[in-house]
Amino acid sequence: MDDPWQMHAENSPNCEYVLLGKPDEDVNALPFRTVVNLALRCATFSKYDNILEDIRILEESERENALYRDPYSRSLIEFRNATKFLTYEHRLESFESAKIDQKKVLKATSKKLAASGFYFTSKTFATCPFCLLSIDFQEIDDEWKEHQKNVECDFVKLDKKEESEWTPEEAMMLASRMWVMHKYASGLKLVAEFEKKEKEYYEFGERVNRMMAKPKCSTRRCSI
């Protein structure tokens, strides 16, 4: 029979329990802070797994359309979508369609960009989900240094690219920040759409005013 510990270490090398090294049978031998961190991590992942399972059931349900109208269901799905790029793995996946690693002229690579907190948006642009900074990776030499210029970004301030180094509190903080920025970005889109419509209405009104303006008579005998 394969060694369960070895299988655990090979399949989940970033697991906090694995990173401790093979522990003794006596849990009391572990430092108190370590035990607390492990307990918090378990609670965090348990809650997150429950949320993901709820979302999976909602999306696969035959009553999907009806459930989508339920506020709680919509908020769960929106939260999952908004925090998708919290992990390096999902940010890296976003670059698959860009195929930037095949372009040897670029200094940036998908792995470097994802590790620096960016996900692919379009053409040669990538965006940080934690602060909405957008960069043209075709024009930069060091994506992390470029990101560090935005000192207000929580991902930059945390300065921990390795997710295995995050505490549960830090992970939830980043997820919360992503949720806030998602809402902010949605608000910006609404404002942009409103401004566009407002401009269109203004231009339409100007055209109507010109059409309705009293024409000047071109003949001297005209009584108008």
Strand-and-helix sequence, N→C?
A: HHHHHHHEEEHHH
Q: Could you state the oligomeric state of the chains shown?
A: single chain
Count the helices. How many? Answer: 10
What is the second-level CATH architecture of the domain at 84-210?
Orthogonal Bundle
Helicity, as a percent range: 55-70%
Q: CATH H level of the domain at 84-210: which superfamily?
A: Inhibitor Of Apoptosis Protein (2mihbC-IAP-1), Chain A
Which term fits the overall shape? Answer: elongated
End-to-end gap: 104 Å
Outline the biggest β-sheet: 3 strands, antiparallel
- Class derived from helix and strand content: mainly alpha
CATH topology of the domain at 84-210: Inhibitor Of Apoptosis Protein (2mihbC-IAP-1), Chain A
Mean pLDDT: 75
Care to count the β-strands? 3
What's the Cα radius of gyration? Answer: 27 Å
- The strand line-up of the biggest sheet is 1-2-3
Low-confidence stretches: none
CATH class of the domain at 84-210: Mainly Alpha
Fraction in beta strands: under 5%
Q: Care to describe what's here?
A:
Keywords: Metal-binding, Zinc. This is Inhibitor of Apoptosis domain protein. Pfam families: BIR (PF00653). It comes from Caenorhabditis tropicalis. One of its GO terms (molecular function) is metal ion binding. By secondary structure, this protein is mainly α. It has a domain at 84-210: Inhibitor Of Apoptosis Protein (2mihbC-IAP-1), Chain A. Helices cover 56% and strands 4% of the residues. The protein contains 10 helices and 3 strands, in the order H-H-H-H-H-H-H-E-E-E-H-H-H. It has helices at residues 4-11, 16-19, 32-60, 64-68, 71-82, 88-93, 110-115, 143-148, 154-158, 168-212; strands at 119-122, 125-127, 134-136. A 3-stranded antiparallel beta sheet has the order 1-2-3. Strand 1 and strand 2 form a beta hairpin. The protein is elongated and about 90 Å long. The model has no long low-confidence stretch (mean pLDDT 75).
